[in-house]
Amino acid sequence: MAEEQMAEEQTPTNPPAGNQPGSNPPANSPPAGTPPGSASPGWLDSLPDDLKGHEALSTYKDKTPADVAKALIETSGKLKTALVAPGESATPEEKQAFNDSVRKMLGVPEKPEGYQLKLPEGITDKDPLLAAIVKDGHAKGMTTEQLQGAIDTFAATMSSFRSQQQAEGKKALETLWGAQFKENLDAALRGMNGLAKDAGVDPKEIKQLMNETGWGDNPVLARMFALAGKNYKEDSLKGSQGGGGSTPKSAAEVLYGSK
Q: Which end of the chain is more exposed for a tag (fewer CB within 10 A), N or C?
């Protein structure tokens, strides 16, 4: 009896199938010595043909299945907050809701008055042209940066055009009047101020109108003022000089602006 018990104790226990020395490892298992969590060479090859060759999986060829699962979870979270354009069958309300979301994401204010703009020199917030540009830009969904750029470009273009207009107008009068240019220009200023006073209008308002419209650069208008100025005395110039101890301005500065 004792001998049979000793024989049973000495009988070796068979190892689990697949782990016997010299046996082949299970399919798709990493080579011996591969650290846990490391990429399993060829794991993409175990997928069906229509998946393993897909371009979207090419970036994961050196990754582990756990890496792919993590990327899938991260992408799924991002998609929950992603804006998806409405399809052809979407209702007008759904399309409007999408547009509102896009505008909000881009920072477009709810109303045109909500833009925080830095107005270029020479443009005020009372300018009707500026109001029209802002209103149109808001309707088109322009961001503050885009609208600011449009206004800056407009202001620079108008400034360049006005400078060219002034130069051309002055050159035309210099050619026409020759040596009498300064004399006639003074007469034009007298005529402008004299007519303004006769009409009960502040000459400063006329000057502002000339600058805003560009009429002060018009040679035809300057010639008309010069003709009218021959009927007014020299002191009619005082209406455009400003009060106090300000430095008197020449007719050219009043009509064409300071350079």
A: N
Within a domain: residue 46? no
pTM for this entry: 0.53
Asked if residue 52 is part of any domain, the answer here is no
Q: Model confidence over 76-127: pLDDT tens digits?
A: 766 666 666 778 888 989 888 888 888 888 899 999 999 999 999 888 888 8
Number of structural domains the chain divides into: 1
Provide the token pair at 54. 């897909």
Q: Are 171 and 181 in contact (CB under 8 A)?
A: no
Q: How many CA atoms lie within 13 A of 109 on its CB side?
A: 15
Compute the distance between CA of residue 102 and CA of residue 96 in angstroms, rounded to an integer.
10
CB atoms within 10 A of CB 196: 20
Is residue 216 over pLDDT 80?
no
Does any domain span residue 78?
A: no
Cα 64 to chain centroid distance, Å, stands at: 43
Task: Supply the range of the domain harboring residue 195.
Answer: 163-241+250-256
Q: How far apart are CA 99 and CA 117, in angstroms?
A: 23
Number of neighbours of residue 161 by Cβ within 10 angstroms: 11
Residue 209 covered by a domain: yes
